[in-house]
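Pair request: fold both.
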Amino acid sequence: MNTAFSTVKHPSLLKAILEGFIDGILIVTEHGEWIHANDRARRICRQFAQGLSQPDRVPHEIWSACQRLIDTLNPTNCTTTAEDEIAAGKSMSYRVRAQWLPIEPFQPP
């Protein structure tokens, strides 16, 4: 499996760092395929995917921020971000921030 971590010198260290974040970190392709999700991100996605036939898909609520970012893609400037706040019940909400993660030089981020 070719992941973002295969291009990193110490992939296990990078995975350990991502798992340690209190925030949910979900790394996906521009087609919505999961590359990596830390434990917190997996729990958040499961919360929104309850009752769906494909629980490993990016929930629509999160994907909408990603789609806005994709729609504004400027190949020379990958510093753009898209933010959103999504409700997860009556008293809980999450802040979603989508941004490009350039992995290799000459490939789309």
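--- second member of the pair ---
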Amino acid sequence: MGPASMDDHSTREPSWVERGRHRSDRPPPETWEPARRAVLALVRPLESFLKIQASSGILLMIAAVVAMAWANSPWSESYHHLWHTPIQVGFGDYRFQQSLHFVINDVLMVVFFFVVGLEIRREMHEGELSELKRAALPVAAAIGGMLVPAAIYAAFNYGSPTSHGWGVPMATDIAFAVGVLALLGPRVPAALRVLLLALAIIDDIGAILVIALFYSSGVEWTGLVTAAVGWLGVIVLQRVGTRRPVIYVVPGFVVWVGILAAGVHPTIAGVIIGLLTPARPWFGEEGFLVRARDAIEDFESHAKSPHANSHHLLEPLSRLDEARREAVAPVVRLESALNPWVAYGIMPLFALANAGVTVTAVDVSGAASASIAFGVALGLILGKPLGIVLVSMLAVRLGLCALPRGVDAKGFVVVGCVAGIGFTMALFIAQLAFRNPLYLSVAKISVLVGSLIAGVLGLVVGLVLLKSRATVGVALSADDAERSTDL
């Protein structure tokens, strides 16, 4: 029995599962192996770079450097001319024409703000903003980090025509800030990273409110009515159970058109749609397992049938895809899908289109220009850390909130410094705040310089103030040994 059964086992046909596993280890049948190896040699370093937490910030920095170099090169005219290239969309007799700069700042950046809205929605449902007690500390820190930089700018520009630029130094660029913390490595406790993320999200909420309330050109009520129609369209689609995200593009576009016509900056439409996105999954983990098993069993029965063909496999595969799609909430799925496009496409493109300033054309000798420069730069470099540390420590002292485990005042100083990296949002608000080309150029340079100094300062302060986790571990072990000796 033993040898015979072994022979039967060695000569039996492999199951369809085993055959499929064997095939999945090989490249697709149409693959030309030398071409595949060449592509993998190019793609793998890129994949390794994208896995680095600071990669988005690095790409942003490269885009900003390219923009500055291009704008100050012998080809600077081509840089400025490029962004004024007309882009036209037509339907019948209707023609909508805008510049490439408008498409980037007012159309593509809607996707950026949509992702911001998704992040806020997710945090409100299950993150740091889901409970008042958990949200109290980052809210206090963010409020301080917005008010003090705005106050510093206002002090330098009080009574001046440039006073309306107070919103520029208020915002934090989360990609750069997280990137700097990533460079500090294990010195940064997980609680400190979570605190920075929550603070940056609340910071984004503040920036969105500032844009909507103070940097919009008078409200046109017919536009708001149009936006409300689009908003109702989203609600109706949700109530009838529509789950395909692409269908929501139509009412989302109506919201964008309405917000644009209302005189409010159209990127706010992205935030509105993001906040409307469902934060609860349809199936969840248990529902996914049940439906996935049913679909796989049907797939297996079809695959074993002698009369089956590939078309019979499509139906269980469709149910399996639906189970996969609905295992997590739409807000999580969309954020995960869009984040790479925003981080590695839209934001660097925005930086390339907006960071280029011809330095020789900027005159900072005037009182107004100097006020903008000092207000923006010092607001980012000093205002952010002062506001975050002072207000959060005051809130802790008053008992309104408590410090997370592993986070002390030194950690708040580091967070305050890196939060001074304004970049993307600061450049965006500068575009809205300054119509005068000279003032806008001064504000842009001040944002770039202030953000660079804040980033370097955050890195240096982090290296000085934060002990490495290994050092902390050694210290704890020594303390434990001393306690055991005393006992």
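Observation on the second member. Confidence is low (pLDDT under 50) at residues 4-8, 470-487.
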